[in-house]
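Support reply, case 0932

Customer input (verbatim):
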Amino acid sequence: MPFTVQEKSDAYSVGIPLRGIFLNGDLVVPPLAEGVVLFAHGSGSSRFSPRNRAVAAELNAAGFATLLLDLLTPSEERWDATSATLRFDVHLLARRLIAATDWLGSRSETADLGVGYFGASTGAAAALIAAAHRQDVVRAIVSRGGRPDLAAPVLAKVRAPTLLIVGGDDLPVIDFNRDALHELRGVKGMTIVPHASHLFEEPGALEEVTRLARGWYRRYLRPASSPGIGG
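Our regenerated output:
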């Protein structure tokens, strides 16, 4: 089914203040948005990740606001590019995700929207940790090729409906996600995309991720009064 493109979306480049630093992000708010999805990148990626930007664009077309965010500052990204350490500091990433979540709640155009998370790789662990600390705000989580095992101590505290999406060829990560699925206590699901690798670069793989994510957010992130809930 083709996507319905909104006539106009409000797009912003934003800087989110946090203890003397600013986190750069791109916020897009379609007309009559029915929720906002905050993207948590991982494994050295940034808000310019072509995969997450593709998913975000389709979510915008489906009527959801999105915030693509750099969870590391430019200097931290340069350090991480050589050390590969900060990308695994999921508690640091989670604290910054929480700050961004609170920031969305302070803005007039997003304050009344339910919040969803879309986490990739180690960013998925950060999303789960943040959701455990913002149980009254976060309504839905989607993980793409995530490392939920890195959030193992808090998985039982996550209340938001959580969908784990894993590539069929990403064998170690499949096991990590199966173990995490067992620990989650709320509404949950896991889908394996056949013949997809960790980055979902194969033809049609990312499109399947987008379809699954859109359906999850339509079911759990939309206000209960919205037409099509549960579709």
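We compared this against your earlier run and they match. Two observations from our side: The longest strand covers residues 10-18. The first helix runs from residue 50 to 61. Please reopen the case if you see a mismatch on your end.
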